[in-house]
């Protein structure tokens, strides 16, 4: 699987209310790096940026384009075959099984929950194997832990087989082991061509797995570049405050961001 898709934001402005805080992005393009992290403090606009990029929120000004075509003018099935989106929370109206949830990702390709198409079955089987849930296909969601549910929904997004995948806090509520496992899953897909754009709160994970980091502050881009350039005390203190310390890991040489009293 390879991808040459590009997602571009042009002169974008979005506000939930006319006089409220606004997301303002003059120009931003995704698709050049395997994994890009969107980071920043709470309320900086990370989730809003992802929803606008996915075409779920309509900007007050500017536009989002996928491969030169306005996302707002694309039919949803055609868009979903190229652009995937996984929100922070995925409430299920029914107690579906693991396999049925993963099969939802094939809807953009015309698939159904029964997976009568061999291509759909293969895509779902690959996704469930990648997230380590292939032996739990028949288990209902209500019988899963919170972390297992996150992996089921990730399997659904992977089964969709988009060219670009937007994820809002894919490691939320996961312990260190499972958070790293999720990032490794995404890294393996990215090595085969998927382009991943993920909102992350954990700067350590972002530094370890991501090729690019976009730092948001008050709805604007405070910094954009490789993690080593973004994760420095001067930049982070401006955004997060003075109670942080930035060090380099003695083995990986990746940057570490620590809280101070």
Task: Walk me through the structure.
The chain has helices at residues 46-53, 76-80, 98-103, 118-130, 146-159, 176-191, 203-209, 227-230, 233-240; strands spanning 7-15, 22-30, 35-39, 61-66, 69-70, 83-86, 164-168, 195-199, 212-217, 220-225, 244-248, 255-259. 40% of the residues are buried. Strands 6-7-8-3-9-10 form a six-stranded mixed β-sheet, with helices on both faces. Strands 2-1-4-5 form a four-stranded antiparallel β-sheet, covered by helices on one side. A two-stranded antiparallel sheet has the order 11-12. With 261 residues, the chain is an alpha/beta fold. The longest helix has 16 residues, at 176-191. The chain starts with 6 loop residues before the first strand and ends with a strand. It is built from nine helices and twelve strands. Helix content is 31%, strand content 26%.
Helix content: 25-40%
> What is the gyration radius calculated from CA atoms?
19 Å
Per DSSP, the total helix count is 9
**What series of H and E elements makes up the topology?**
EEEHEEHEHHHEHEHEEHHEE
Strand order of the largest sheet: 6-7-8-3-9-10
The counted number of beta strands is: 12
For this structure, the quaternary state is: single chain
User: Low-confidence parts, pLDDT < 50 over ≥5 residues?
Assistant: none
Question: What overall geometry do the principal axes of the alpha carbons give?
Answer: globular
Report, as a whole number of angstroms, the end-to-end distance: 47 Å
**Rounded mean pLDDT score:** 90
Classification by helices and strands: alpha/beta
Our estimate of the beta-strand percent is 25-35%
Q: Biggest sheet, in brief?
A: 6 strands, mixed
């Amino acid at each position: 699987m390879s991808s040459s898709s590009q997602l571009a934001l042009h002169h974008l402005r979005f506000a939930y209310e006319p006089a409220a805080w606004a997301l303002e992005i003059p120009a931003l393009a995704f698709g050049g790096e395997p994994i890009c992290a969107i980071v920043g403090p709470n309320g900086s606009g990370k989730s809003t940026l992802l929803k606008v990029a996915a075409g779920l929120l309509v900007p007050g000004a500017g536009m989002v384009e996928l491969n030169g075509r306005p996302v707002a003018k694309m039919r949803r099935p055609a868009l979903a075959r190229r652009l995937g989106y996984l929100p922070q929370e995925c409430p299920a109206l029914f107690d579906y099984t693991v396999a049925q949830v993963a099969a939802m990702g094939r809807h953009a390709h015309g698939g159904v929950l029964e997976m009568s198409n061999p291509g759909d079955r293969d895509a779902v089987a690959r996704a469930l194997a990648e997230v380590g849930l292939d032996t739990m296909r028949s288990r209902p969601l209500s019988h899963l832990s919170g972390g297992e549910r996150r992996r089921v929904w990730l399997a659904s997004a992977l089964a969709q087989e988009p060219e670009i995948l937007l994820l809002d806090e894919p490691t939320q509520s996961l312990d260190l082991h499972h958070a790293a496992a999720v990032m490794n899953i995404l890294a393996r897909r990215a090595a085969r061509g998927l382009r991943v754009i993920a909102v992350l709160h954990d700067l350590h994970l972002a530094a370890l797995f991501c090729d690019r980091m976009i730092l948001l502050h008050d709805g604007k881009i405070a910094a954009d570049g490789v993690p080593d350039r973004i994760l420095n005390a001067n930049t982070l203190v401006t955004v997060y405050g003075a109670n942080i310390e930035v060090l380099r890991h003695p083995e990986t040489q990746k940057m570490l961001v620590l809280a101070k009293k």
